Structures are given as C-alpha cells and as structure tokens.
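This section describes the prediction task in plain terms. A model, or a person checking by hand, is given the sequence of a single protein chain and must write out its three-dimensional structure as a string of tokens. No templates, partner chains or ligands are provided. The sample shown here is typical of the held-out split.
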Amino acid sequence: MKQTLCVSEVMSRPVVVLPPDASVARVFAEAKSKGVHHFPILDGEKVVGFVCTCDLIHAQADEPVLPLAWHHPASVSPACTVTDAARLLLMHGVGSLLVMAPGGLRGIVTADDLREVSPELASLLEPARCTVCRAGEHLRPGLYGRPICAYCKAKQARAAAD
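The expected answer:
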C-alpha cells in the first residue's frame, strides 16, 4: 500500500443524501433501492445530521429521521490518509466518516472501503468488529467490554426480555 493514499481515492460517491423531513420508511426504501445504509441529511448544502439503518432498528416507519440522527458526525478531509481515517473510525467507534471539504460534502468513507485497501488496514480495523456477527459498524461495548453491533445488542436484549 502506498503510504500517501488519501480517502478521496477510496471514498464512496456519489453520496445518497436525505432531506431533513425524510421518514424512517424512506431511509429503508433508499437503503434497499440504492444498496447503501449510511445517509447524510442535508438542508441545502449543509449537513444537519447523519443516520445509518442500524440506528433505526427500533424506530417506527412514519417517524421523522432527523431527531434520530447523529448531529455532529465524524468527518475527515479528502486529503486525510487512509491510515488516519482507519484510526479515526476506531477512536470514534463508528463504521463511516463523512468526507468534507470547504465546499461541503464530498463523499463517505466506510470501514469496508478501508479494509479493501490493504491487508494492513484490514488488520488495523480487525478489533472493530462485532464479536457476535463480525459486522464492522455501530459497535457498542458489550459483555466484558467486547464490541457488539447495535443489531446484535438489540437482539440480545430482546432474548433477555423473553
């Protein structure tokens, strides 16, 4: 892997964005039709939120998505190195970063985008996987501090309630 590879070279674009008045149902419809699950919410050119389908597993279809969104999502510049981006993903415990430039949103870089760059980055990101299903996004501390994704954590909570 060349040491100076930047996120602008591996980021996903064009970005599928949502308006501030989007519903949870629209998020899932867009996810299904576009094959993505990370959605910046834009009001004009300004990012006002960020949501992933994983954040909405308990939401009602007719709920507005903006109140459920992250309002200060982690981001990087297009010139950020892929190694630094991987470290930021680990530090923030997220599966994606918005790629922002002075003119606004330029793309999204995900943990999967970075894992595909090189075996070194895949190894660096390995601790950031769910200990149940091996997903690499939306991790929370689980039993004994081991990472668990939002989906598996909710599934375990439902099983414990039964």
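For orientation: Strands lie at 38-43, 46-52, 75-76, 96-101, 104-110, 139-141, 147-149.
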